[in-house]
Amino acid sequence: MATTSYFSSLLLSSVTSSSLNSTHRKSVISPVECGSISGQNGPIRLRTGSGSSTRRWAKVEDRGEILESNCGFPVDINDDDEQFVVDSSKEEVVETIPEIPERDYAGTPYVPVYVMLPLNTIDMNCGLVDPQNLIEQLKILKSINVDGVMVDCWWGIVEALAPQKYNWSGYKELFQVVRDFGLKLQVVMSFHACGGNVGDDVHIPLPHWITEIGQSNPDIYFTDKEGRRNTESLSWGIDKERVLRGRTAVEVYYDYMRSFRAEFNEFFEGGTISEIEVGLGPCGELRYPSYPANHGWKYPGIGEFQCYDKYLMKSLQKAAEVRGHVSWGRAPDNSGSYNSWPHKTGFFRDGGDYDSYYGRFFLNWYSKVLIDHGGRVLTLANQAFEGFPIAAKLSGIHWWYKTASHAAELTAGFYNSSNRDGYAPIAAMLKQHEAALNFTCVELRTMDQHESYPEALADPEALVWQVLNAAWDVCIPVASENALTCYDREGYNKILKNAKPHDDPDGKHLSAFTYLRLNPALMEEYNFMEFERFVKRMHGESVPDLNCPREISLPESQEDSQEPEPEPEIKLEENCSLNRLISGCPKLEDMVLEGSWEDVEAINISSPTVRSLTLNFEEVFMSGKHRTNVVLDLLNLLHFNYVDYLAIHYSMNFNYLVDARIDIVLDLENLMQISEVFSDSMVELLHGVSSAKHLYLSGKCMEALNCGQPKLPTFNNLSCLNLV
């Protein structure tokens, strides 16, 4: 026992990752209302006859098996039924719902897929953070044919200390790494601060010299009616005011973009940079900062107008004078606060002041300031980037969309009430400046919003349809990204549906999709397999598991049950080469060898396409035979599951391994005679999987190591170790 403990410590000392975990999620807890369970291929909803709203959950294996639930009755998986049935102890109503088959996207237009890099990829000193880990992650993304990555070039980092003193060093190193992998780059000119919004896990302020100006002149920031300043981005009121040490705001943006263009000319000319997204407001989006979390906003509050700095107020007063109504030179005084609901305000309620003569004047002015700002900055962006593709991002403000006023959109600057299209003028402005549109929230489903917060009267699907069609109507490219983290098939299917509308007579489709965001959760085995599947479908490739639903039902009665048909087997003749069979499968990705292979002394597998390999020879455990060699040359393998007697020699070539599960058996009768061989064999096996991020070892692995004094490999990438 002491020896086992020693080798466990030795193995742990070989792990260099600072984020080691002792367990890994093998199953998920899926919380649902009224017994709803999310299955592998989509939502499976169970309705009980009691009408109870008790919160139900089920623990589901990665492959779909139900482990346990609090539904009060057993729930099983069946593959052969066309429907599922739920009958909780014969006291509940039985409901059957047919599975809706997924659409096959094979042969559809190719939509490039990018992945946003973490917000802290570059530190405050403009250094590349953890380049080795980034390299490993890019290897994995490249292995599933992701087209490229998106990165924020933070104004607060590059021009941090003094005007026109730019430090691009960390970005140069990053761009070289990306180019070496043959990936493309979407680069965001991020003229906003980071921190305080949903998903922000770092704090990157505006440049220090800007904040110094703001201390003496706080009106350079957007301001709400209580006088609170929002330091996330500069007010559009100073676009043409020389208050930034002799320069206007748009001149500052232009100088920054021009410096970037000169500094990274080789990446433009070489084709690594595919697009520049120009930051136009908070979060890089063309909108007012109307719903700031650091000022107390919570979903689904309507937000507040952000026009109370002296520069925007001066603009409003001038517009009122020109209109001949000096008294209109003020913002509404009955529009509520950040967390108000429309019907509780005099301005946004049905028939409220938003639709009065004054309300229409104010909202026209407020949205025009937004559109004019976008036009000014994009004009200079085109000059700086000399006709190179540029884009602008709009946020998907979907709450209160089903009300007449669309209050949350109005405070953000989108004049999109029920009797007016607020996105067509923005699309026209983008068309004028030859800019593409990037829109968020394409993964959200209206029914989910209604279930989680019905009072918000949200409709993300209608909003996405409206915005995408406004852009397509003026023939500008439309890209998109998800608004919230997305790992499930339902979300991916919604993105696909928006990316490639099935019934569009003109065959319109998105020009690109950017996934938010690269993180450890995405790299978990099941999440990453779903993401890889999504990428293939965005690329118009076929996937092997379409229309193979897994259903949920109660166990059948004994008299109705039937023995399942055995799965077909591939039988190889004694002289047949396994690699000869594999060579005839140029698109093979998932490979499983299992059953009785005791007469095969050596396993030799080579394939450039296999992503997942299972060698499960549990049936030969009684034979007591150790194979002579296991040779695995699988450059793009991500997932490895190995169950067998420990072989004498191992040779493995895995470049992108994410996880490995090792469960070996020893010939205990001859343990003393060949103990040193076992130890050396186990070290060779561990060397083969030393690049994995997640590693699972059985107790027999430790026992094999105990047979000698081995020198273990270093596990540079390991973040999760499970010894069972």
UniProtKB/TrEMBL annotation:
Stretch list, region Disordered: 546-570
GO molecular function terms attached to this record: beta-amylase activity
Reactions listed under catalytic activity: Hydrolysis of (1->4)-alpha-D-glucosidic linkages in polysaccharides so as to remove successive maltose units from the non-reducing ends of the chains
SUPFAM superfamilies, per the entry: (Trans)glycosidases
Pfam families, per the entry: Glyco_hydro_14
Signal peptide interval: none
UniProt record, GO biological process: polysaccharide catabolic process
Residues noted as binding substrate in the record, renumbered to the chain: D152, H192, D200, K393, H398, T440, N482, A483, R517
UniProt enzyme class: hydrolase
UniProt EC number: 3.2.1.2
Catalytic residues identified in the record: E285 (proton donor), E481 (proton acceptor)
InterPro entries linked to this entry: GH, Glyco_hydro_14, Glyco_hydro_14_CS, Glyco_hydro_14B_pln
Keywords: Carbohydrate metabolism, Glycosidase, Hydrolase, Polysaccharide degradation
Ranges of compositional bias, category Acidic residues: 557-567
Similarity field: Belongs to the glycosyl hydrolase 14 family.
Family matches, as PANTHER family: BETA-AMYLASE 1, CHLOROPLASTIC, BETA-AMYLASE 2, CHLOROPLASTIC
Full protein name: Beta-amylase
